[in-house]
Amino acid sequence: MNLIFSLIVLAILILIPLIGVGVLGLSSLFAIFIPYLAFAIFFFGLIYRIIDWARSPQPYKITTTSGQQKSLSWIKHSRLESPASSWEVYLRMFFEVFLFRSLFRNLRADFDGKRLIYGSAKWLWLGAILFHFSFLVIMIRHLRFFVNEVPSFVQKISAVDSFFQLGVPPIYITDILILAGLGFLLLRRLVDAKVNYLSYASDYFPLLLIISIALTGILMRLYVKPDLYAIKQLTYGLATFNPALPKGNLSMLFYIHLFLVSSLAAYFPFSKLVHMVGVFFSPTRNMPNDNRMSRHINPWEYPVKYVTYAEWQEKFRDVLEEAGIPIDEEWTNVAQK
Amino acid sequence: MSKLPKPDQLLQGLDLHRTPEKHWMDIKPDFSPGKYCYAVDPQVMIDMGRPNLGKWQPTDEKWPLPEDWKERLLKAIRDRMERFRSFKLFMDICVRCGACADKCHFFLGTGDPKNMPVLRAELIRSVIKGEFSFFGRLFGRVAGARPLTEEVLKEWYMYFYQCTACRRCSVFCPYGIDTAEVTIIMRDILHELGIALDWAMKPLRNSHFIGNHLGLQPHTIKENIEFLMSDIAEITGLNIEVPINKKGAEVLFVTPSADFFADPGIYTFMGYVLLFHHIGLDYTISTYASEGGNFGFFNSIEFAKKLHSKIYEEAKRLKVKWILGGECGHQWRFWHQYHGTMFGPFDYLEVPKSPITGTVFEHAKYHKAVHICEFTADLIAHNKLKLDPSRNDHIVVTFHDSCNTSRGMGIFEEPRFILRNVCNNFVEMPENTIREKTFCCGSGSGLNTDEYMEIRMRGGFPRANAVEFVHKNYGVNTLVAICAIDRATLTALMKYWVPDVVVAGVHELVGNALIMEGEKERTTDLRYRPLKGMEEEV
Amino acid sequence: MYNANKVIIGIIVFLIFFAMPFWLNFGKVEALPKPELPKEEKKCIEDTDYMKAYHMKFLDEWRKTKVREGKVYYINKEGKIYKMSLQRTCMKCHDNKEKFCDRCHKNLVVQPDCWKCHLAPEEVKKWQ
Ligand code: SF4
Ligand code: SF4
Fold this sequence. Notes:
Chain A has 14 helices and 2 strands, in the order ααααββαααααααααα. By secondary structure, chain A is mainly alpha-helical.
């Protein structure tokens, strides 16, 4: 049901440029206006989300300590899992954000007869890493369409990425890896009963969308070739804010690719994909476990009424006296003033 | 109370890889006996100055909700999102990867998908989408959105009280989403209508008015301690006095009240006292601030502040230099992560320094509170304790990392270091069930009430199962924990799942091993069980 | 806003990263280099749109048929016969690699391996 719904939405998204450009001939709308609009939504949307999170304070320092705290000098503390200083926090965050360290810990629980056993389950980690890093490399590679003199790091990355020189033009390794990663993530949602049960359409949709983007991209590279020079004229114009429709033929596949990318960009800030920036805000990861060393201030902390010693002593005066527990008049007098 | 099935029947048919036919939004919570906790007695809420729903139970077909219950809840949710970045963020960034799904002990023991942490959080996330978001309302269920209804509220009651706020899920989540935080905040939100658990609220009221959860009045505490001291005298031949409300002592010692009163906490308490006597510590306990734990923490955060304000007034009144905290799990998570913010700065105290070893506890230089295991580990490392670990030879020990001290504080090595020095037979449980991956006792955060026994035994199953493994393979018969709740709940859990294992505190074992000056030859441990080789004597 | 400093730095890093195309072009916006077309010849072997998009596939086909099957001639859609040779046929009209091939290829980071074996017309001239 959820999968079908996402597939339908995806089909509609593909139909829109097909009709818009193919039938109605709205080339400028799809080549210029919609991409600009989508990326405006992407930038402003994400910045809005960031500021919105930042508007709420983190009242308490609630680090998840997954390792030994810093305490006695002769006990080795876990710098990554229980960071006590800022740079240790940065390190922890680095490992979280770039290497998905928490996911790497993943286990799978199963019954072995009456015994619960926990096996390592790193597939999810691998799938996620493949997908995310391939995506990153692919984005960097795409800079060749947006910059006039392509910087050497982009050239190097492209060269490494097409290292195997299979076919003409050579296939990119990351193109295969991203499909492998995405395919695994999708398959997992369909096959693993638990994950399947908790998946919404909004979980399938981004996967399908990105898969479609990757597929249209790969198709264009390997089989249904567009006029790259024309594309670069368009994309370079977009990036330098001199948008113009090039003379050459941009090809339908390119319009679909571009429209799906625009959809992804516009969808990004309002979906679970915001985890990309949200992860940096995660209070259980980005705070040091130094609670007893330094003060953390909660801006809305307010005083509360509690049972003071004076009230308590009054209440229990008789039993205190009887039990021979000292009565403290001095303090109650001070407190009264 | 319901009849609890036999251990070998309880989990029959449990399959972690099978899910219900129906969508989870269509499954109603099951309020059958043994599977829910009783609702709070209205008088408790009145005493605590909170709204209440009168006399009711969650099993009631129609809950006696006030007219404007929905608005009030939605307002409270908005308010928490504004005040807690954690809450707001966790509502936004979950990708439903399911990494947390089989990490929750309640899921492992019930197979109920709503006990997967991600779905637990989804119970509220769906409402936030359905009530506050335009797209959520537009797409409804396919986007995981739904409106707030009375059914949803019942579900919240069930599942936010079927989470022990243990944070195990948070360790595995790639974004550190802490369902415990969500649970704690959701309980706080439910409090705004007067929805709470009886068993969790009565101790809170006790602690507020009397000073501790058990409701021990000052003279009772004193009598109890005297009683324990007479046991010590019998076992060791020493007459020890425990200073109570002593002004000018160097250290204020605060421990959960169960240690004064309830088996097996009392043995741990005897251990503390023997230790303090052994090193001649100038300390005092307080009958006003006689509770280290804090049931407010998982009821409503404002209560938590009320309860522990006492500790700091008492520290000022008694003019102590620093504070020493006993063995307790949620006590230490709350002390460690919240006290500094709630009650600081602590200028009237001094940076803790062990009067025996001279060690300055730099890591507590701001908060000025030290965990007793840190304190004792330091003593042992400096060779200041005369120990005879063979006095614990009659037991084989394993160590249960309590959730709170593990994932909310990070104290792993200190208790282990102590254990290795006070006993000869120490075995670890399987790797994936200890330290930061430790399993909850299944009854923490105010759930250890009798009417909830079935869920407790299910939730505690993963822990019990690991204990059973070392019990069978290494003959472990003693489960040591640094948590007062554990000492109560694990005892029940062991009785059900692994009946030959008893529960003890670290300092109970310290107390056994300490060679006290002037003591007579010991023939039994602190529980009057014969020491190894002394079976004849007793 | 809380933790404003860090948040603002975060936003800046975000903008630097995701608006990379904008920054890399900043201050040096120029027209893209245009490949120089042959002056005399107006028609390529196949039609221009096809050549623009598919020339690499086309040349690869030539290479394969020539090397593997030993064929020498190519007949285009209009029935015209061409000798399959990069150096002798293509580069006869496109007589400057640098001004034709490289302009686009450099600009789009395409690294074809034609010139590992073949000689560009410029090179050939040097040797003549
Ligand atoms: S591990 Fe985190 S992101 Fe994944 S489903 Fe659980 S809460 Fe969501
Ligand atoms: S905090 Fe513990 S009990 Fe609660 S959902 Fe997470 S793993 Fe389960």
